[in-house]
Write a structure and sequence with these properties.
Elements: E1 11-14, H1 21-34, E2 43-48, H2 53-67, E3 71-77, H3 80-89, E4 94-98, E5 107-113, H4 122-132, E6 149-151, H5 155-164, E7 177-181, H6 190-197, E8 201-205, H7 224-233, E9 237-241, E10 248-251, E11 257-258, H8 260-274, E12 281-285, H9 290-298, E13 302-306, H10 310-320, E14 324-326, E15 332-334, H11 343-357, H12 361-364, E16 373-379, H13 389-402, E17 406-412, E18 418-425, H14 428-445
Parallel strand pairs: 2-3, 2-4, 3-6, 7-8, 7-9, 12-13, 12-14
Antiparallel strand pairs: 1-5, 4-5, 9-10, 10-11, 14-15, 16-18, 17-18
Length: about 450
């Protein structure tokens, strides 16, 4: 379904170009109207990350929401999963996170959560879009029914306590030296504080936001800084979050990166042994490594694959009753604790397993050897290359050559005007050749 405003993860784009104050005002009005559920004072929570443009968007959202009669609780800089959690715990009708996740400061966006703390369905997003393009004036509140807005000061402490309570009382990180990279983003205060309160020696990087440096050479999409700091400080482990802290990756004591596939394998295996898996398997996207799938099969666990996007993962988890899922990029969803990806809670679970086993991260988080995987992007020039016969033939030939020893995936990006080509197999030379052939065919047709 083609939509005008919403993409694969809320509304996102260049700040003050696509994501303007006018757009945010319309989103506030339309979302406020879409979530009217009776004749009472409706409440909405708004969180944000540390981008300079978040101030502009926050105030425009407040104006829009209050104009349709909703009271607004402004949370300040908090992680996306905190907004999801607080939407439920504070009995709000709607939650909005202002963020462009792992993008640079020039971009921003809005992620919306329903009263159950889950991201919105396609149907509700379509309804909001229709309201945004309709005549709002007749639906505005009268002067006496306008909404009020206020800032809430204790939300960070509430989230920290919530995150800590996901661990057993006897768990302590005393004796651990942890480097935490907050990406100069939304978790720059809560993540280090949580780890310190649990007993760890904490070394912070990416924890000095200035509005313009979010995700700049730090965070889960730029783990080099964390890897260097872990080696420099001889730390036991490094944790890198992204700008809104709904994803994370780990760096072991040697400075090696541990991606979301390995994290899901660690948690799934541990929970299987403890009898905590609600179903014998996990949910992951088509991008997760074939090595993960083979490893889970060796444990008698299934890998249920979805299209790319954490909302697809969450929907499949809810539909089929899984309680572990996520993406290779580090979005890990543990539905026993959260309705969306939560980088901090995922990290706490891995650290707890590490402490329980008494082994270094390099041992705990190396559950399988990933197959060589290559991803390339081909820019689109307005054409529709995936409908081209030569492209289809190239993809079919590559699929046949891989046969049962690997796989190839060709898909349009949900966030950029490119076609992504991914292949994986035991033979690295083969996948390099196949990806080049498919990309060349797409480029000729694009």
């Amino acid at each position: 379904m083609t939509r005008k405003y919403f993409g694969t993860d809320g509304i996102r784009g260049r700040a003050n170009v696509k994501i303007t104050a006018e757009l945010a005002l319309k989103v506030g009005q339309a979302a406020g109207l879409a979530f009217r559920r009776g004749e009472y004072r409706h409440r909405v929570v708004i969180g944000k990350d540390t981008r300079l443009s978040s101030y502009m968007i926050e105030h425009a959202l407040v104006a829009g929401l209050s104009s349709v009669g909703a009271d607004v609780l402004m949370l300040g800089p908090v992680p996306t999963p905190a907004v999801a959690m607080l939407t439920r715990s504070m009995r709000c009708d709607l939650g909005i996170m202002i963020s462009a996740s792992h993008n640079s400061y020039q971009d921003n966006g809005m992620k919306l959560f329903g009263p159950d703390g889950y991201k919105l369905s396609d149907e509700i997003e379509k309804h909001i879009e229709a309201l945004m393009d309709s005549e709002i004036a007749p639906m505005l509140a009268c002067a006496s029914d306008l909404g009020r807005a206020k800032r809430i000061d204790d939300v960070q402490a509430r989230y920290i306590e919530y995150a800590k309570r996901t661990l057993s009382r006897e768990v302590s990180f005393e004796g651990l030296r942890i480097v935490v990279d907050c990406a100069n983003g939304a978790a720059y205060e809560v993540a280090p504080e949580t780890l310190w309160e649990l007993g760890a020696e904490v070394i912070k990087i990416g924890a000095e936001p200035n509005g313009l440096n979010i995700n700049l050479d730090v965070g889960s999409t730029a783990p080099g800084a964390l890897s260097r700091k872990v080696r420099e400080m001889r730390a036991d482990v490094g944790i890198a979050l992204d700008g809104d802290a709904d994803r994370m990756i780990i760096v072991d004591e040697k400075g090696h990166i541990v991606d979301g596939d390995q994290v899901m394998a660690v948690i799934a295996e541990s929970w299987r042994e403890e009898g905590r898996l609600s179903r014998p398997g996990i949910v992951a996207t088509v991008m997760s490594n074939l090595g993960l799938e083979r490893h889970l099969q060796s444990l008698g666990l299934m890998l249920e694959r979805t299209p790319v996007g954490d909302h697809h993962v969450i929907k499949r988890m809810r539909d089929m009753g899984f309680n572990v899922g996520g993406e290779q990029s580090g979005h890990v969803i543990l539905s026993d604790y959260s309705t969306t990806g939560d980088g901090l809670i995922s990290a706490l679970k891995v650290l707890g397993i590490m402490q329980k086993l008494g082994k270094p991260v390099s041992d705990v988080c190396r559950r399988f050897d990933p197959l060589p995987q290559l991803v390339r992007s081909v820019p689109l020039n307005g054409g529709k290359p995936l409908e081209n016969a030569a492209v289809s033939e190239a993809i079919a030939k590559a699929t046949a050559r891989l046969s049962s020893c690997g796989r190839i995936l060709v898909r349009p990006s949900g966030t950029e005007p490119v076609i992504r080509v991914m292949a994986e197999a035991d033979d690295e030379v083969l996948i390099t050749s196949l990806v080049s052939e498919v990309c060349d065919a797409i480029a000729r047709a694009a």
